[in-house]
């Protein structure tokens, strides 16, 4: 399904309730399944969280998580400690091209029984769940933080807890800290100091209700909208100033484009007024790579250059996001240079109209490019891919007077 997206005004005002963070939701769903006694509120309504819930309650041998990368990593560790359970964990064609070897090797070093069904190092994998006795594991620090979080989430279920030693410079530290905070809020003790993560053993949790903060990655598209129009007042809830999510750095980054963020008790207000814009910006996104697409498209629409670094994990996402960004930005008339870990966009002087944006089975490609409709009408291919993280995205666009129609 293709949607044509357009907007006829340069002034935007509205209030939106954004779904809960899928990052927080998926961590809490694993903890709840292992220990029970948790009531989760404002749970994400994303496809990824629905896939996670279904997998955790499945009695089938084969569990298909489709495109959900977080679910693949977290469930690999989860099923490895489900004593007596045999599971074949599989996913989409793209998921079967995304590496899982480093996590499998770490779990095997702890005594887990995991084999590959097709290609060495990639899903699908067959897991024979068992009681793991190991209490320590080492792995490289610059790998996907989801591998590390997967091990953290099962740590407390092990008889002696788990110590994780990280070698080298840590990637995506905020996501590791988020996992630690989710464990601690649930009642599990742990620490992260000097590249060593310690998770203490836990046999049971006291009953608790834990609210999920709304998703900052989803908020990024409204920061982009605010930046791309002349005047804006957009209220978003439920957000906290002291957020666990690395993408909350948006508030600081988008100041450069004239977007201010005011924090209320349970919400944020984005305001934009006419202002001068920078010629170029430079951002290290190693702790928040999921907002790289949004920032690049914002800069394209504003005619601002940008250099974004720390993007090495984008090559193993739903697609190679660096290549995808280069392809689609250049269709619109921009000029992009990419390497393994950075993207450089030259200031664009004009944009082409009614360009069809390919989404590559990647929800963030669709949502990152939609706001540029404030500058030029665009057609989003496979538009409903957004349901992976934000099913209400187009409905929320329409509430801000965007025109969204079948193309």
From TrEMBL:
Start and end residues of each Enolpyruvate transferase domain: 57-397
Superkingdom of this protein's organism: Bacteria
Enzyme category, top tier: transferase
Residue numbers annotated as active site: 290
UniProt: 3-phosphoshikimate binding residues: 22-23, 27, 144-146, 172, 290, 317
Signal listed as a keyword: no
Pfam families associated with the record: EPSP_synthase (PF00275)
Subcellular localization: Cytoplasm
The entry's keywords: Amino-acid biosynthesis, Aromatic amino acid biosynthesis, Cytoplasm, Transferase
Catalysed transformations (reactions): 3-phosphoshikimate + phosphoenolpyruvate = 5-O-(1-carboxyvinyl)-3-phosphoshikimate + phosphate
Stored InterPro entries: Enolpyruvate_Tfrase_dom, Enolpyruvate_Tfrase_sf, EPSP_synthase, EPSP_synthase_CS, RNA3'P_cycl/enolpyr_Trfase_a/b
Enzyme Commission numbers on file: 2.5.1.19
Classification via SUPFAM superfamilies: EPT/RTPC-like (SSF55205)
Residues holding phosphoenolpyruvate: 22, 69, 98, 146, 321, 364, 388
Main location: cytoplasm
Pathway assigned in UniProt: Metabolic intermediate biosynthesis; chorismate biosynthesis; chorismate from D-erythrose 4-phosphate and phosphoenolpyruvate: step 6/7
Family the UniProt entry places it in: Belongs to the EPSP synthase family.
Physiological role: Catalyzes the transfer of the enolpyruvyl moiety of phosphoenolpyruvate (PEP) to the 5-hydroxyl of shikimate-3-phosphate (S3P) to produce enolpyruvyl shikimate-3-phosphate and inorganic phosphate.
Quaternary structure note: Monomer.
Name of this chain's protein: 3-phosphoshikimate 1-carboxyvinyltransferase
Source organism (scientific name): Zunongwangia endophytica
């Amino acid at each position: 399904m293709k949607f044509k997206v357009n907007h006829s005004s340069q002034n935007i005002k509205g209030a939106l309730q954004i779904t809960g963070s899928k990052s927080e939701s998926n961590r809490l769903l694993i903890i709840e399944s292992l220990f029970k006694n948790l009531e989760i509120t404002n749970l994400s309504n994303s496809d990824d969280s629905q896939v996670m819930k279904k997998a955790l309650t499945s009695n089938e041998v084969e569990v298909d998580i489709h495109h959900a990368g977080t679910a693949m990593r977290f469930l690999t560790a989860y099923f490895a400690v489900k004593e007596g359970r045999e599971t074949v964990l599989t996913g989409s064609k793209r998921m079967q091209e995304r590496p899982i070897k480093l996590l499998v090797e770490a779990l095997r070093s702890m005594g887990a029984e995991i084999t590959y069904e097709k290609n060495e190092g990639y899903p699908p994998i067959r897991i024979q769940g068992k009681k793991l006795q190991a209490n320590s594991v080492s792995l490289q620090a610059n790998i996907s933080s989801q591998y590390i979080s997967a091990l953290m989430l099962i740590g407390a279920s092990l008889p002696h807890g788990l110590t994780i030693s990280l070698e080298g410079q840590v990637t995506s530290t905020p996501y590791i800290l988020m996992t630690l905070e989710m464990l601690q809020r649930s009642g599990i003790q742990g620490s992260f100091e000097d590249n060593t993560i310690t998770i203490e053993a836990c046999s049971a949790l006291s009953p608790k209700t834990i609210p999920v903060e709304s998703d900052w990655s989803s908020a990024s598209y409204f920061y982009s909208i605010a930046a791309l129009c002349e005047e804006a007042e957009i209220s978003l809830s439920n957000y906290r100033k002291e957020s666990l999510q690395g993408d909350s750095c948006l508030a600081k980054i988008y100041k450069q484009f004239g977007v201010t963020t005011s924090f209320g008790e349970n919400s944020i207000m984005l305001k934009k007024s006419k202002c001068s814009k920078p010629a170029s910006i430079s951002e290290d996104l190693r702790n928040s790579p999921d907002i790289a697409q949004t920032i690049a498209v914002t800069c394209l629409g504003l005619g601002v250059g940008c250099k974004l670094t720390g993007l090495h994990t984008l090559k193993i996402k739903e697609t190679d996001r660096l290549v995808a960004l280069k392809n689609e930005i250049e269709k619109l008339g921009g000029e992009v240079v990419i390497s393994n870990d950075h993207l450089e966009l030259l200031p664009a002087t004009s944009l082409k109209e009614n360009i069809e944006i390919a989404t590559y089975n990647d929800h963030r490609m669709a949502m990152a490019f939609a706001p540029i409709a404030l500058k030029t009408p665009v057609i989003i291919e496979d538009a409903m891919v957004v349901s992976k993280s934000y099913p209400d995205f187009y409905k929320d666009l329409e509430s801000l007077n965007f025109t969204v129609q079948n193309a």
